[in-house]
């Protein structure tokens, strides 16, 4: 609240509600999501990225959990079906840090400097939370022949 102000949260809550999405992030925690990203890569290695991603999004947006907390992330990873060995490697050994570093490097080189960021067909970039119309326009632009 201190960082963005109550008005920002009210506006976001209204925007989410209009789109039919929950908006209940933890009011006192802005999590460091680095470990969540690393666990996402761990989940990808087991073919479970979608389940883990959905679990993290639900934990943050609906349940107001701190997705920067390794204990919370471990529980989300277990619920998504990740193996204990991969979870331990990701959290205790940071075995997927290089994959996140590589993705971050690529994103910076592509001009991505905001979250969310959408890349359509590898050539049309939309930064930040945008109305559906903007995303539809970007998708249409990506469908146009070069």
Description:
The chain is mainly alpha-helical and 146 residues long. The protein has two domains: 6-109, Glutaredoxin; 112-146, no CATH class. The protein is built from seven helices and two strands; from the N terminus they run H-H-H-H-H-H-E-E-H. The chain has helices spanning 6-19, 34-45, 49-62, 70-80, 84-92, 97-109, 132-143; strands spanning 117-120, 124-127. Strands 1-2 form a two-stranded antiparallel sheet. Helix 2 (34-45) runs antiparallel to helix 3 and helix 2 (34-45) runs parallel beside helix 4. The termini are far apart. The model has no long low-confidence stretch (mean pLDDT 94).
What keywords describe this structure?
146 residues; mainly alpha; two-stranded antiparallel ribbon; 7 helices; 58% helix
Brief account:
This protein is mainly alpha-helical. It has helices at 6-19, 34-45, 49-62, 70-80, 84-92, 97-109, 132-143; strands at residues 117-120, 124-127.
Provide the fold topology:
Layout: H1 6-19, H2 34-45, H3 49-62, H4 70-80, H5 84-92, H6 97-109, E1 117-120, E2 124-127, H7 132-143
Antiparallel strand pairs: 1-2
Helix pairs in contact: 2-3, 2-4, 2-5, 3-4
